[in-house]
Amino acid sequence: MDYFxxxxxxxDRACLVVGGGAVAERKLRLLASAxxxxxxVAAEISEAIIIFAKEGGHRLVSREFxxxxxxxxxxVVSATGDPAVEQAVYRFATDAGIFCNGVDxxxxxxxxxxxxxxxxxxxxxxxxxxxxxxxxxKVRTQIELLLxx
Length: 149
Prior knowledge:
By secondary structure, this protein is of the alpha/beta class. 33% of the residues lie in helices and 22% in strands. The strands form 2 sheets. A 5-stranded parallel β-sheet has the order 3-2-1-4-5, with helices on both faces. The protein has a two-stranded antiparallel sheet with strand order 6-7. Helix 1 runs parallel beside helix 2. The longest helix is centred in the C-terminal third of the chain and has 14 residues. The chain is globular. It starts with 13 loop residues before the first strand and ends with a helix.
């Protein structure tokens, strides 16, 4: 087993999302659904993120990522799609002892986010450790068909 599976209690915990596009929005929504208090840092932030963040009381910082941005956060997600930024975010977060996920960039991850089936209170997480994401999605689809809504 390459990764320790865990479900994190993020209620009221400070989390950082670096990036302002569609991928960052998906991660923001996922963190928010777990009760996290999210800060979003990006030079360009989509209208959907702006609306969601304001409605949810999350913090928006409209500028490029700075190393100090990771400080004070419990968890970091880098969703810029820019390899240099992903690497920098990962380096500064891990140097600060903060878990970091570079979305779709396994080299810049100290944790990975699994495929999720949420039928609260039952939540199923499926992971291939990044080795077979298509298979993980197929397994998720099968589980979604098995579990009632």
